[in-house]
Amino acid sequence: MKRKLIGRSIRKEFNGWWAISLIGATVILLPILFVFSSLFFKPNENWFHIREYLLGTYVKETLILVISTGALTAILGVTLAWLVTMYDFPLKRFFRWALILPLAIPPYIAAYTYRSMLSYTGVIQATLRNEFGYQMNPEWLNISSLRGAVFIFTLFLYPYVFLITRSFLEHQSASFFENARLLGRKPFFIFLKVVLPLSRPAVVGGVVLVIYEVLSDYGVTSYFGIHTITTAIFQTWFGMYDVNTAMRLAAWLMLIVVGMFIIERLLRSRQRYHLPAKSRPLAAMKLKGMGAAAAFIYCTLVFLAGFFIPFVQLIAWAVLTFDKVWNDTFFTLVYQTLYVALISTLIIIVVAVIVANVCRKQTAVSYFLAKWITTGYSVPGAIIAIGVLAIFIGLDQWLAPIYEMMGMADAPLILSLSIVMLITGYVIRFMATGYNAIEVGFEKVGTKYTEASRMLGSGVTKTFFKVDLPMIKGAIFSGFILTFVEICKELPLALLLRPFNFETLSTKTYQFAKDERIHEASVSSLIIIAISALSIVVLQMVNKKVKE
Amino acid sequence: MKIVDVQDLVFSFSSEGEPVINGVSITIMKDEIVGVLGPSGSGKSTMLRLIAGLEMPWQGSIYIAEKPVVADKLFVQPENRGVGMVFQDYALFPHMTVGENILFGLSRLPRKERKPRVAEMLELVKMGEFAERYPHELSGGQQQRIALARALAPKPNVLLMDEPFSNLDADLKAEIREDLRVILKKANITCMIVTHDRADVEAICDRSIEMGQREKIG
C-alpha cells in the first residue's frame, strides 16, 4: 500500500524541474562536505605546526573579534533604530535611511581609508602638525589592531542590526508602548524592559548577519595584520599551497559557525519575528531641547564617521589620481568585474527560480531542498573558496588522462586555472541572496494561478513560462540586483579563486591598498560604493512595495 | 454515462492527522448539476481538488468519463484530465486581458477555431464587449462570469465550482444564481458545485450530496 503511494507521489511530483533542482543542490553542497571530509585525511606536518603554535591565537582573535563586534553593533544598531522609530528630532526622516548608507562601503575599503586618514601623513595628523604645531603620538591613532578592526566592523556593519530592528519596531503595535506609558513608566525604562525583550529575535537576527560578515572577512583582518582562522586559511594556501591543511582550518571555522547557529537558536528561544496582522503604527514622540540635541548629535556622529567622512576622503583622493587611473587597464577591470558578476548572477537566478518553483509545494523534501540550496550564505567565504579549490584541483587530476589524450599534457591544470572556478564559488556563496528574493515573490503570488493554468490544460513548464514567470518579474529583478551587487563587492572568494592575472574591481582595490598605493584605490572603491548603493535603493523600493 | 466516479476515497493532509475524507464514494451522471453541501472543514473543497488532480488521495480510485485518472499506481496530471474548475476567488490571470484569459485554455484546438471559440464563450456569458479589458477592471460578478467562460472554453467533461457565491454581494446573489443556471444548462455541462448554502443548491442543482458524514453517499 505504502509503496504504491510513494510510486504515485513520484509520478505526481517528479519532473525535469526536480531533476535540475537536485543536481544544483548537490553541486552546492559538495565543496562544503569536502571540507568536512578533510578531517578524515591524515594530517601533515604543517598541520601539527599550526595546531601546536598558532591555532590558539587564531581561535582567540577570531572569537574576540566576533564577540566585541557583535556586542557593539547590537548597541549601536538598536539605539539608533529606537531613536528613529520612537522619537521626532531634527533631520529624523533623513537619518532613517541615511544610517543604512555605511553598508554601501565594504569594510576593507573603510579599513584602508581610515588607516590612511589616521596615519602620520594622513589628513588628521598633518593638519594638527601644520596648522597647530602639535605633534601627536602616532600610537594613539594606530588603527591596525584588533581594536581598530572592531571599530571598522562596528561602524560599517551595524546597519544590518539597525535595518532589521527598525523594520521590526515600525511594525510593532503601538499598544505595547502606549500601555507601558499609561502605566506611568519613563521611556528609558520602556526601552529596557519592553523594547529590548520584544525585539530580541530581530536583534539576534541582525547580529548573526554581522558575525557572518566578520567570520568571512579577509580584507580588513589581513590588512590590519590580525590572525583569524580565515586569514590563516588564506595564508596556508598562498604561502604553502597546502590545500589539506587549509581545509582542516576551514573545518575548524565551520565548527565555530555551527556553534553560533546553536547559540542563535538558544537566544531566540521560541520567539519568532512575530508581526501582528493589523497594528496601529506608533506615533513618534517629539523630543525637545537637550534630548533633541543629543539624539541629533548621536545620529550625526555615526553618519559622519560611518559614511560621510570616508566617502569625502575617497572623493578627494579620486580627484588627485583620476587621470592616472582612468585608462584602458581600468576599463578592462570594470568590464571583467561586470562580466563575471553577470554570468554568475544569471546562473544563480535561473537555478533559484527552478528550485523555488519546485519548493512551492511544501513537503518534507522541498523543505530540505530549500535549506540545502541556501547553505552557502551561512558558510564563510573562505570555507567555500577552499572547498571549491580542492574540488577543482581534484577534478583536474581526475581528468588528467583526458587532457593528455587531447594533447594538453603540458598544461595539467585546466579547470582550476579557469574562470569557471571563480564563477562556481560565487554561485555557491550567493545562491541564497537570489533564492530568498524569488521565494518571497512566489509566496506573494500564491499557487492559485498556477493551479488555474494546470486546470486549463497547461503542463508545469508551459505554466511556468506563461503564468508564473510574468507574475514574479519584480522579484526576479530585485533578486538579480541584490545578487549582482554582492558579487561585485565580494573580496575573499575573488582573491582565492580567480585565474592567474585576472583582476576584479575588488581585488585590484585590495591590491592597491596592500601596496600602499591608497590614493589610486579610490576610484575603484567609489565605483564599488556606487554599485552597493544601488542595492540599498532596491531594498528600499521593495520595502515600500511590501508596505503598500 | 458516469462522468465522475469516485470510489472509497481516503485523504488526509498529513500522515498522522485524522483523514479529512474517509471512504467517500460519489457518482455523477452526464449533464447532472450536483451540489456538494457540508459545514466548513467537512472536506468538500478538498473533494474538488482531488477530482481535479491538485491533491493526491491516499486510497481509492477516481474515474472521469469512464477513464481512470487515479487508480493503483496511476496518477493523471491535472492538465490531462479534461476537468474544468472555477476557483473561489476566480484566479483570473492579472497580466492577461479577458480575451487572453479565455484563449489560454484553447491550445489543443486548431488555430483557426480558437478566436471564434473565445467569441462564442463571451457571448454565452453576455460579456461580448469586454474582451480587451483586464480582470481588475471588472466587477466581482463580471469576473465570475469570465472565470466560468474560461473554464468552459476547452469543453471539459465536468465543471467544478468552488463556493461560487462566497465573494459576491448578498443582494446580487438571487440574480446571479439564475444567470448561472441558465448558462450551465445552455452549455450542456456536467457540473459539481461546492457550497455551504442550501438555498444555492435548491436554486441551481438537480440534486445534492452531503459531506461530513462517514457513510457512503451519492
TrEMBL record, chain B:
Entry-linked CDD domains: ABC_Carb_Solutes_like
Residue ranges of every copy of the ABC transporter domain listed in the record: 4-217
Organism listed in the record: Pseudobacillus wudalianchiensis
Protein known as: ABC transporter
Keyword Transcription: no
One Pfam family of this chain: ABC_tran
Domain of life according to the entry: Bacteria
Segments crossing the lipid bilayer: none
Keyword Iron: yes
InterPro entries for this protein: AAA+_ATPase, ABC_SmlMolc_Importer, ABC_transporter-like_ATP-bd, ABC_transporter-like_CS, ABC_transpr_FbpC, P-loop_NTPase
Molecular-function GO term, any one: ATP binding
A single cellular component GO annotation: membrane
Alphabetically ordered keywords of this record: ATP-binding, Cell membrane, Ion transport, Iron, Iron transport, Membrane, Nucleotide-binding, Transport
